[in-house]
Structure formats: structure tokens, C-alpha cells
Request: fold
Amino acid sequence: MGNIDILVEKNRAIREHFPETLRLRLHRALSWHQRALKEPDDPDAQFIFYWVAFNAAYGDDAAEAMRMGERSRFQDYFSKIVRYDAEGAIHDAIWQRFAQSIEALLTNRYVFQPFWCHHNGVPGYENWEERFERSQRGVRSALFRKETLFILSVLFDRLYVLRNQLIHGGATWNSAVNRNQVRDGARILEFLLPLFLDVMMDHPEENWGNPHYPVVRD
Reply:
């Protein structure tokens, strides 16, 4: 589990039994993940491609989902993923394989949105340091208790800030600044996404939502 080539073959073997919405999600997510792997020397490009793959996996075009904030959508998606992670592969990835990289991201103020809100002059964020410390206390408690769902939600909240920096032109390509979080983010996404997709393949009966921009044939 986790090897993208094996996952592609698994998908081909069983996808005819999937609902069309899930089949489309998986096809898109796998295609973008494979594209990301072709950029081993460009972490910016890798991160962007991996994020597109993640968006294909979790994004929901249903009206109710669209009314939810991004954090709520992450939470909803991850609650399903963690519930079905019977082998504990995601749990092991967080607490063993990437524990150091994840902790570095979660304690990095440069991927903490209130920090940027304050520096952009948005009213109400003068206490960003207090918010950051409160967040760190929650993270430390969750790390101690090994609360996988909470850490996943906070982790992807931080990665979403990094995503916005890149997608909205808030960073320079191949910049010497903030390299560590881009590299760590790409590596974490590279490993976790196939685990997420594998869980989805094993549970096609779950309602994974309606993918954005479904295929429309004339």
C-alpha cells in the first residue's frame, strides 16, 4: 500500500465496480499524482501537482459542501479516511515516518494564516502570537495523545496556507526562502495521498461526494 504504480493497477482492476463519481475522482487524482512524480528536482511544481491531486480526491461540488469552509471540508474528509484506516498506515506515517517534518510544519509561523493576516494589516489579528501559542498547545497535546484526525486537520490547514502562497503568486519559484516547508509539504503529500486513495478504493460504498466539474458529454 502506498506505491503509486501498484495503486494505479489496483484501480484499473476494480474501478468498474465503483460509482462514476468515485471513478472520476480516483482517475483525476492518480493522474496528477503521477505528474508530480516527474518533477523530482522542482518541489514547487511537485507541491502544486500533489495539491491538485488532493483537491480531486476531497473536493465536493454538492451545494451543502460548498457552503462549508475549507477546514470543515478537510475535517469531513479526514474523519472518513481515518475511520477506514484499518491497517493504521496513515497513523504510522504521521507518528513514525514523517513525525519530525510534520512537527516542523505545525510549529512554523510562516504557514500560520493569522500571522499573515496581521502582517497584511487585517484588523483583529494583533494577537496572532497568542493565537499561535494556543495552537501550539493544542498541537502538543494532540501529538502526546496521538490524535491522528486532529493532526491531519491542522497539518492540512497549514499546507493550505502554503498552497495559497504558491497558487496566488505569494512566493517566488525556486526561492531560497521557505524551502524547507515546500520540500516537506511535497514529501508529505507524496506519501499520504496514495494512502488516502487506497482507503477510498477499499470503501466505494462511502459517499465521497460529487467531484468538481463532472464530465459532460453532448
In short: The longest helix spans residues 179-202.
